[in-house]
Write a structure and sequence with these properties.
By secondary structure, this protein is of the alpha/beta class. Among the domains are: about 160 residues, Rossmann fold (3-Layer(aba) Sandwich); about 130 residues, 2-Layer Sandwich (GMP Synthetase, Chain A, domain 3), CATH 3.30.300. The chain contains 19 helices and 30 strands. The chain has a seven-stranded mixed beta sheet, with helices on both faces. A five-stranded parallel beta sheet has the order 7-6-8-11-12, with helices on both faces. Helix 5 links the parallel strand 6 and strand 7. Helix 1 packs across helix 2 and helix 6 packs across helix 7. The longest helix is centred in the N-terminal third of the chain and has 17 residues. The model has no long low-confidence stretch (mean pLDDT about 95). Bound molecules: adenosine-5'-monophosphate-propyl ester (PRX). Adenosine-5'-monophosphate-propyl ester binds next to helix 10, strand 20, strand 24 and strand 25.
Length: about 625
């Protein structure tokens, strides 16, 4: 299957075709996949009700396209390279034939556990090959996978299990993350004490540590996998059957289960993977994201496997045992394409250039970034010291909701400009609008980034609450999908993404709703009200800053801050822990009682001269106290 556009003229031509006659464009692309039955209609859509269908009437199974289609020709080609957390440990390679067999065996295990088409299965696992295998096994049997990132707490896990109504949970005994041991099974046990749905858990022994097993509920993977057949017929799925649910944070309190469906997601991830990265047969592709996030779904798992690529899966973290680990892995596995987050680049950049210089990274030909805006300094460092000025950088803008890359360069094919995600991919029709929803057509302008036409990989609903999907994405600017991002478009039509314009904070490329963190803080009996904002952070992009109005009794303030942090860790996970908590007596409010977050963001960033007119506030006197508090927090840290 070759979906690639290989020169700029052809990109422009294909882009025009995809806009003028989308159905014809996608029909040609889609015809290269394996279908059990062809579609009746390429696309039908209604953005008001959010009723979107691609390849309606078709039958397929995405895993036949990830696995069966590559056999027997690629039977001995490496599908996955797994690099363990500990550098001295042996790595694992699975060929396409081996991966196929293991996925089929796992399907039989799922069947034995009573899993059928349409059931939801929760995966809460570290980055071990069995996670990827379980994802594919769910897809093959027609179950809907919902992967929960291993950094989420028991409470957050339970909330997601219940929202999705998962029947089965797959986990491991534990895992190492850097120097720490994460007791996955113990966290699962805590979550299951809070949740109602799970009937069985399947536990993969990874660490070999002792863990409690509940009779009748918990089953060892290695026991159930004995003597399972290495063939399993893929279940025929309708094009619009759900493939997975992935939870993501929005501006309101509860995370949303973004639903992606089988056919459109398949076509979109393969098409974007091959074009953006210009993948060539035999190359090793490394996406450093965890499968718990959308990037790990689309560009560690589905996109590469649909393309018959070799995908590298890394269990560890960039700074363990030291900050050269990424470069070691690139050298060890002769990685050709490396895709990571700006936050990782910034944190490694802080260790200087001597570490990457010690490794042979000549194999690299393309670099990519994702998840947050990349600043010029980090871009230049990545380009000069990792890519040695030879490797194009693709800055890829997209979202959990978009399923795959939307705006990005095609490596070495389209022009690049540091800090700009650049041009939309074929099929993507972005527009910038002002606050009234009016399209801004002038060059060199900022605006709210919206998309005006459906693309195959877009979300179809938010699980169990379609109205929420309509309200969140399609109501702010009727008739358009609103991304929640602000963007700048230059005179050449290139886009630079400025960041979120809603109440979402992007910490190290991970999204958190301010309301989600506030809800956790407000559970503390001494917290009366809180307001969480993002502030610029050198490494993480944005840090989390919480203002908390508290009940002034005997309480020790240091203790209170500590307890609030613990509460957030318990409710969401360590990843959402505020960097700063400022205890306050009041928050700036309008006369109608609305908290002025704009002012709070400026104070948290120390930008006191940019507060604007504060005289119309209900309580302007609180500003001075807030500034004083911020200053003393910064000096004491
Ligand atoms: O603000 C944008 C930012 O990440 C948000 C999407 O987050 P999530 O759904 O977690 O998906 C992250 C991985 C695809 C966007 O709304 N974002 C993502 N990529 C970029 C970006 N901001 C700037 N440049 C990017 N390349």
């Amino acid at each position: 299957m070759n979906l690639s556009i290989t020169n700029f003229d052809s990109y422009q031509e294909k882009y025009q075709q995809s806009i003028k006659n989308p159905d014809q464009f996608w029909e040609v692309i889609a015809s290269q996949f394996k279908w059990q039955k062809k579609w009746d209609k390429v696309c039908s859509w209604d953005f008001n009700q959010v009723d979107i269908k691609w390849f309606e009437g078709a039958k397929l199974n995405i895993t036949e396209n990830c696995l069966d289609r590559h056999l027997p020709q690629k039977a001995n080609d490496i599908a996955i390279i797994w690099e363990p957390s500990e550098p001295g440990q042996p790595f694992i390679q699975l060929t396409y034939q081996q991966l196929y067999e293991q996925v089929c065996q796992t399907c039989s295990m799922l069947k034995e556990l009573g899993i059928e088409k349409g059931d939801r299965v929760c995966l809460y696992m570290p980055m071990v090959p069995e996670l990827l295998i379980a994802v594919l096994a769910c897809a093959r049997i027609g179950a809907v996978h919902t992967v929960v990132f291993g950094g989420f707490s028991a409470n957050a896990l339970a909330e997601r299990i219940d929202d999705a109504g998962c029947k089965l949970l797959i986990t491991t005994d534990g895992a190492k993350r850097g120097h720490k041991i994460i007791p996955f099974k113990q966290i699962v046990d805590e979550a299951l004490a809070l949740s109602k749905h799970i009937e069985k858990t399947l536990v993969y022994r990874h660490l070999g540590e002792k863990c409690a097993m509940q009779q009748g509920r918990d089953i060892w993977w290695h026991e159930l996998s004995q003597n399972q057949p290495s063939e399993f017929i893929a279940v025929a799925m309708d094009a619009e059957d759900p493939l997975f649910i992935l939870y993501t944070s929005g501006s309101t309190g509860k995370p949303k289960g973004v639903v992606h469906t089988c056919a459109g997601y398949m076509v979109w991830t393969a098409f974007t993977f091959q074009n953006v990265f210009q993948y060539k047969e035999g190359e090793v592709f490394w996406c450093s994201a965890d499968i718990g996030w959308i990037t790990g779904h689309s560009y560690l798992t589905y996109g590469p496997l649909l393309s018959g690529a070799t995908t590298l899966m890394f269990e560890g973290i960039p700074t363990y045992p030291d900050a050269s680990r990424f470069w070691q892995v690139i050298e060890r596995h002769r990685v050709n394409i490396f895709y990571t987050a700006p936050t990782a680049i910034r944190s490694l950049m802080a260790h200087g250039t001597t570490l990457p210089e010690q490794f042979e990274m000549e194999s690299l030909s393309v670099l990519g970034t994702v998840g947050e805006p990349i600043n010029e300094e980090a871009w230049q460092w990545y380009f000069n010291y990792i890519g040695k000025r030879r490797c194009p950088i693709v800055d890829t803008w997209w979202q959990t909701e978009t399923g795959g890359i939307m705006i990005a360069g095609l490596a070495g094919v389209t022009p690049q400009k540091p800090t700009f995600a650049s041009y939309p991919l074929p099929g993507v029709q972005p527009i910038l609008v002002n606050e009234n929803g009016k399209e801004i057509t002038e060059p060199s302008t900022n605006g709210y980034l919206c998309i005006k036409y459906p693309w195959p990989g877009m979300l179809r609903t938010t699980y169990g609450d379609h109205e929420r999907c309509i309200q969140t994405y399609f109501s702010t600017f009727p008739g358009l999908y609103f991304t929640g991002d602000g963007a700048f478009r230059d005179e050449l039509g290139m886009y630079r993404i400025n960041g979120r314009v809603d109440d979402v904070i992007n910490v190290s490329g991970h999204r958190f709703g301010t309301a989600e963190i506030e809800n956790a803080i407000n559970l503390h009996p001494n917290a009366i009200e809180s307001a969480v904002v993002g502030y610029p952070h050198d490494i993480k992009g944005e840090g989390i800053y919480a203002y908390v109005i508290f009940e002034q009794n005997e309480i020790n303030e240091e203790q209170l801050i500590h307890e609030i942090k613990d509460l957030v860790i318990k409710q969401i996970g360590k990843i959402a822990q505020p960097d700063y908590i400022q205890l306050v007596q009041g928050l700036p409010k309008t006369r109608s009682g609305k908290i002025m977050r704009r002012i709070l963001r400026k104070i948290a960033a120390g930008q006191y001269d940019e507060l604007g007119d504060t005289s119309t506030l209900l309580n302007p006197e609180c500003i001075e106290f807030l500034k004083e508090g911020q200053k003393s927090l910064m000096t004491s840290s």
